[in-house]
Specification:
Rossmann fold; S-adenosyl-L-methionine-dependent methyltransferases; four-stranded antiparallel sheet; 6 helices
Length: about 240
């Protein structure tokens, strides 16, 4: 989970590395409407600072977010004061309303610890869908596509600050353990450093597909999207009780 320090610079760094939030939101909206042409509402689970939600708002009449990290949720609320951003856990949230589509972007689903939690989350997604509603999940890496020892870096300069991020990820059982270090420099405060550790589960494609099916959803996997991780989409085939 990302803390207060990272929430301030997270999006700037990933945009500096070329992440296309606009294009991803448009692509997801197109896939949602291919399954449900009249889709007009969306819940973005693990919405982070609201970078995708900002663009989903242009595609759907009603959008809301759900975020477990309070610093991230606060950043999303500052960005989108007219959008409801719920504080909550994807494993057990209950909002009392339904949506045409539910998304979970940027590998956030991998923060679930095991298949029991994955099944619980997909069940919650399904319970919050309107008839025929669509789920779209941008997964974390599979066990056979994860690169053990992978090093990533990025820099950005914005709003009078220069930012740098370096990460190193290794396999830890059925998960990836990613150490992330940040440098933030500005004229007034000089240079400061902080770090975080993220344990992200390497679910298999079959485990994702089984969770979709158990939740009463169809499932299709599209390779190559989202930096190579791909995309899972599925539509509700069985009514669920919210």
């Amino acid at each position: 989970m990302y803390g207060a320090d990272a929430s301030e610079i997270y999006e700037l760094l990933h945009q500096g590395k070329g992440k296309d939030y606009v294009g991803e939101a448009e692509e997801i909206a197109g896939r949602v409407r291919a399954l449900l042409p009249d889709a007009d509402s969306l819940l973005d689970v693990a919405c982070g600072t609201g970078a995708h939600l900002q663009h989903f708002r242009r595609e759907f009449a009603r959008v809301e977010g759900l975020e477990i990290s309070e610093p991230m949720a606060a950043a999303a609320r500052r960005r989108l004061p007219e959008v409801t951003v719920h504080s909550g856990d994807m494993r057990d949230f209950a909002l009392g309303s339904g949506f045409s589509a539910i998304t979970c972007m940027f590998g956030s689903i991998g923060y679930l610890a095991d298949t029991a939690e994955l099944n619980a989350a997909l069940g919650r997604f399904a319970r919050h869908l309107l008839p025929g509603g669509v789920v779209a999940i941008d997964p974390w890496w599979f066990p056979d596509t994860f690169l053990d020892g992978y090093v990533s870096s990025g820099t950005a300069t914005a709003e009078g600050r220069t930012l740098a991020r370096v990460s190193h990820a290794v396999r830890a059982g059925n998960a990836s353990k990613m150490e992330v270090h940040y440098l933030v420099a500005d004229a007034e405060s000089g240079v400061r450093h902080f770090g975080e550790t993220h344990l992200i589960t390497l679910f298999t494609r079959e485990q994702y597909e089984a969770a979709f099916t158990a939740a009463g959803l169809t499932v299709e996997y599209t390779e190559g999207l989202h930096g190579g991780r791909g995309l899972f989409t599925g539509a509700l085939t069985q009514p669920r009780v919210a």
